[in-house]
Amino acid sequence: MLNILYSFAIALVVALFGTPLFSRFLVKKSFGQFIRQDGPTAHYTKRGTPTMGGVVIILAAVIAYLLANLMVARLPHLTGLLVVFLFVGMGLIGFIDDFIKISRHRSLGLRPVWKFVGQGAVGVSFALLAIHFPNDAGWTPASFKISFLRDTGFDLAFAGRAVGIVLFVLWANFLITAWTNAVNLTDGLDGLATGASVMAFGAYIIVALWGISNICGADGPTAHCYVMNDPLDAAMVAAAIMGACVGFLWWNVHPASIFMGDTGALALGGAFAGLSIVTRTEVLGAIIGGLFVLVAASDIIQIGWFKVSGGKRVFKMAPLHHHFELSGWGEVTIVIRFWLIAALFVAVGLGLFYAEWVVDQ
Description:
The chain is mainly α. The chain has helices at about 1-30, 55-70, 80-105, 110-130, 160-185, 190-215, 230-250, 260-280, 285-290, 290-310, 320-325, 330-360, and strands at about 145, 150-155.
């Protein structure tokens, strides 16, 4: 298990000391954040704060994952590499989006159609690779079955493998799109998305560790084991991303000296989706990452009701954290209380995961 500790520690150190260096580079290049004109007026003071800090999170996590494997003379496995591919791929799309905003001095970046094409290309590639290349026990990184606490009986390949591939690609891309947007929407206050991500990825370390201890063998799955291709690799990636987020959070808390930007938000959302798929906890992920779901839902409700009601609003402003800003809550108060909500969701998710295993004993 030293692999997991190495992943976390290396990523933490790289992000903690790399973030201020990257921040100074961004300031020198005048790569600052542009603020929406229709957002809370209190945010105008944040204009010009260095953004694209997600670059540090990505580099720290990838370096840590690779070095941790090297330190124990272990080759990276497909499970971890697939999540890293999704993590980096989504981060690259976010980076292009951020760079366009900065270089063209506007709050809108990559055109939606090109963002959709880019996310689709990465997501489809991930999905197709994830249902191939079984391990010695015969388990591929992903499954055709919809999963909750483990694979359920809902099989996407009910009409054959070809149909299963198509439906799984659509399902995986739905998850990827949903999580990248949810994390991106949550990244609206200093440290909010970063702190929530620390807890969410920490939860996946525990899920993967439990999978390592109770992994199914070649004889087939039972009620007392978990079908996972390589839970150790999943735990290492989760630990690396968690460590990178902790190091970055030191500089991202209020008043933030750097923002993660779409670079970090899309990368974290992609990694979370990937981990939920390879650990066979796709639906459980919506509970573990419940804060992100709550924030995204507030935005959907606001837009939907605005269109249906002819201009009426449910919240003073969406996403949800902006509603509380306009209600007079201080930014730090909102962030801390939302972190508490995130922690409660993580606790419930892990509780369900553990309770299901205990009940089956």
